[in-house]
Amino acid sequence: MASRQYATFEVDDQLFGVEVEAVQEVLSFHEYTPVPLAPSAVGGLFNLRGQVIAAVDLRVQLGLERQVIDGPVMNVILRTEDEPVSLLVDRIGEVIDLDDSQFEPPPDTLSGPVRDLVVGTYKLEDRLMLALDVKAAVDTSRVPS
Amino acid sequence: MEELGDIVHEFLMESHENLDQLDQDLVTLEQEPNSRELISRIFRTIHTIKGTSGFLAFSRLETLTHAGESLLARLRDGVQPVTQETITTLLAMLDKVRALLATIEETGSEGDVEIDSVIEALQRQMSEGAPSAEPPSPSAPAPEASESGDAASPSAEASTQQPAAETTAQPSTTEESAPQAETSATAEPTPTREIPDDPAGRRPLGQLLVESGAASPADVTWAVQRQVEGDERKLGTILLEEGKTTPTAVNEALQTQNKRSVADSAIRVDVDLLDALMNLVGELVLARNQLVRGVAEIGDPALIRTTQRLNLITSELQEGIMKTRMQPIEHLWAKLPRVVRDLANACGKRVRLVMEGKETELDRSLLEAVKDPLTHLVRNAVDHGVETPEERIAAGKNPEGTLTLRAYHEGGHVTVEVTDDGRGIDVERVAQKAIERGLLRPDQVATMDPREIMMMIFQPGFSTAKQVTNVSGRGVGMDVVKTNIERIGGAVDVDSTLGKGTTLRLTIPLTLAIIQALTVECAGERYVVPQVAVHELVYIDGETTKIEYASGTPVYRLRGKLLPLVRLDRVLDLPPAGDKGVYVVVLQADGRRFGMVVDRVLNTEEVVVKALTARFKDIGLYAGATILGDGKVALILDVASLARRSHLSAGQTERQAAVTATESTAKSGDVDRLLIASVGDRRVAIPLDMVTRLEEFPVDRIERAGMREVVQYRGQILPLARLSHLLGVMSEPEEEERIPMVVYTERGRSVALVVDKIVDIVEDKITALRDSDDDAMLGTAIVQQRVTELLDVRRAILAADPNFYNDAPDPMLVEA
């Protein structure tokens, strides 16, 4: 049976995951440069080893309040087609092996911004993990500023 | 062959570079046929290629370069003159060399590139070039060959023999004139017969000592012999210990030895290696950041200092590596003289190529992207822009057309201009053609301005050339240029005056370029403004300088003229600051001048421009981002769109008026730009050319050095001259805390002239110039209807620093 590895993280106490291959690295960072007039989901810019990276606030993408940045914030840096993009999350979880048998499509009743970002649900022993659609998660043009 | 791979690779790389230089040199030589220096350089380069190809057993390449070298030897020794045909033949030889190198690069061997025709042409040049009787002086008119060098010669046999005979007849043609028979016959490499003219390596110590007369040849030979026999001491040590020479002499010789020759000061580096280094430095920065955080938690002062130092070094290292990717645009331009020359010859035109701003740096990836579009524009300008000599004479122009390439940094972009002084673009014809081609409707044309119509030349399928030539004018090209430049985020623009010429302007984003930038602060965040757009800074104290409102629109009176203001906080939708204690950054973009109000002005520094992700393109206010010295990201403002965003574009007509005004003043030439200052009750004018900066210093910063007053200024000691003393007037008592000064800098030296007040800067015709009876003055004139005295600036400068125009520093100031 096929199994996949997921990097997991929490936002608003919900566990999310992206496939490990999409993750470049995970690190905490505390200084973000705001981009005035940018879409509200843009948390800011930061310097990753000389590269300017845009951080996307996953809370805003999920329809929640902006993350208040007054200390280190966890970044999940994702490889995308064009450039690395960072997702700002609350907490970093473990990398877990998941079996295809644990997968189910998102519940029909799930709606709102979350529904657009999620490709499915994995049933873990004690909780559920929502698998994120990486492309949709970093697309800041979805939410108007 | 495996171990030879590297050598061949290096040879190819080196030769490619050399060939570009050769192209350029040959074209220059055509214009300066008597430059022995050029001929020698060309000769040496060909000789090097020949030598190496011999060593690497590329016999065809060797044969070819040998033939070229023989012809060059004759040019060098003045046996025959440099003619257009000679140059054409030599250029043809270079093309063959290129073809051979390309085949070698591809297949590892020379393949079957045909070289005989060129060798033949070279030999024909030699036989035709040298009349049998007297060797002509290089300046003598070229013996005209009826046929240019590209047609096949009737008898290859004959022409191979003749030069050989020629050579024997003239032994003075040097060591290089190998028997010509060998040229076409041989397959075995000719060993290089001479040591390269300028040895790149270090010269032996013994040789240096003998040359300087510090040791006798016999002693050196003896010492070398000792070494051969197993003495492990160094040569200098042996000589010293045996008392054969002096320590001073050895030291001197060692120093000479260690001096880097030109060849040693630059090395070739693989780009992949640079990229790898770049990544490594990136990792280092990350590790540093972690360390800095960890150390801050521990709080050990010594450790903090060390990490700060590490911090700094890492940043510098990072920047240095970035810079290695930058290349001057010269690399791109190197090929163009040849392109222009060949094309001009083919079209029967005369074109002079002028290059300005060769040193402008671009990231190498951009350089690559600009190459083809630029070449196309140049070809286009020669083919369509510049007229034939006859047409030019008829139009009252110099028969030789001028094509100017200009590159410079502007407003966060690199601009490359291709300007010709040719026939210009006929807007009527363009409009007509656009209608014919169905690109425009007649009623559209009526509402378009000439510039917009000209831009039609960049439409696919558009060509105005009366005749379709084989060079350009097939309707492909200009649109491709536009597409290619836009692909890298740039823009193409055209400006033309019928009968006068055309300028095509490529605006290339910096992406990775390094620019001089001004860092400002607005609402607690830092923003970066390209320094090229910044004209001056004004501090708004709310008292003597203040922001005023014209029906709600903020303006500032800059030397009597209203300057429209843009509040950065408002544009960026940030919390607003007040009108006091802020700064106005006077900016110029797109031909418009405006002031940007910011909270603070921090500093100027060189920054590396990073492309901003596509998601911020729509905002349109940012030209990119950069990483500041402390590692934080800052946004680079796009000054031009800032101007547009602020509805300044309404001033289009005003702008054109301004342009016309500056043009007319520039043309009339008799307008003077003067700084007007008051000293006591006198009005003094200083030519603006003699003003480097205006400064204000607090009175308590003025110190005394001997009899003179000085201030510390940018790490230098700046001598002062009070114009009131010089003019012998009573100055207004210094109630002000800060006194204004006019700083003039030349060759790194500065002086300051102390005035009471800067009154104005005027552009005016100086009328009624009268001699003055005051020595410090050149004369008296009416400037803006008021009597104004023209300062003898040179005299005033010497009053501040008597040695200003001498090279020796003022001893008194050095002591100070």
Q: Tell me the count of domains of chain A.
A: 1
The largest sheet of chain B, given as strand count, sense and whether it forms a barrel, is: 6 strands, mixed
Determine Rg of chain A (CA atoms, Å). Answer: 15 Å
The CATH class name of the largest domain in chain B reads Mainly Alpha
What's the multimeric state? heterodimer
* Estimated radius of gyration of chain B: 34 Å
In terms of DSSP E residues, the strand content of chain B is 15-25%
Main sheet strand line-up of chain B: 10-14-15-13-12-11
Tally the helices of chain A: what do you get?
3
Beta-strand content of chain A: over 45%
Question: CATH superfamily of the largest domain in chain B, please?
Answer: HPT domain
What is the gist of this entry?
The complex is a heterodimer of chains A (145) and B (816). With 145 residues, chain A is mostly beta strands.
Describe this structure in words.
The complex is a heterodimer of chains A (145) and B (816). Chain A is mostly beta strands. Chain A has a single domain, classed as OB fold (Dihydrolipoamide Acetyltransferase, E2P), CATH 2.40.50. Chain A is 9% helix and 49% strand. In chain A, the strands form 2 sheets. Chain A has a 6-stranded mixed β-sheet. Chain A has a 5-stranded mixed β-sheet with strand order 3-6-7-5-4. In chain A, strand 10 and strand 11 form a beta hairpin. The longest helix of chain A is centred in the C-terminal third of the chain and has 5 residues. Chain A is globular, with a radius of gyration of 15 Å. The N and C termini of chain A lie far apart (44 Å). Chain B is an alpha+beta fold and 816 residues long. Chain B has 6 domains: 182 residues, Four Helix Bundle (Hemerythrin (Met), subunit A) (Up-down Bundle), CATH 1.20.120; 55 residues; 54 residues; 164 residues, Histidine kinase-like ATPase, C-terminal domain (Heat Shock Protein 90), CATH 3.30.565.10; 143 residues, OB fold (Dihydrolipoamide Acetyltransferase, E2P) (Beta Barrel); 146 residues, CheA-289, Domain 4 (OB fold (Dihydrolipoamide Acetyltransferase, E2P)). In chain B, 41% of the residues lie in helices and 25% in strands. In chain B, the strands form 6 sheets. Chain B has a 6-stranded mixed β-sheet. Chain B has a 6-stranded mixed β-sheet with strand order 27-19-20-30-29-28. The C terminus of chain B is likely disordered. The chains are: A mainly beta (145), B alpha+beta (816). At the A-B interface, strand 4 and strand 5 of A face helix 12, strand 17 and strand 18 of B.
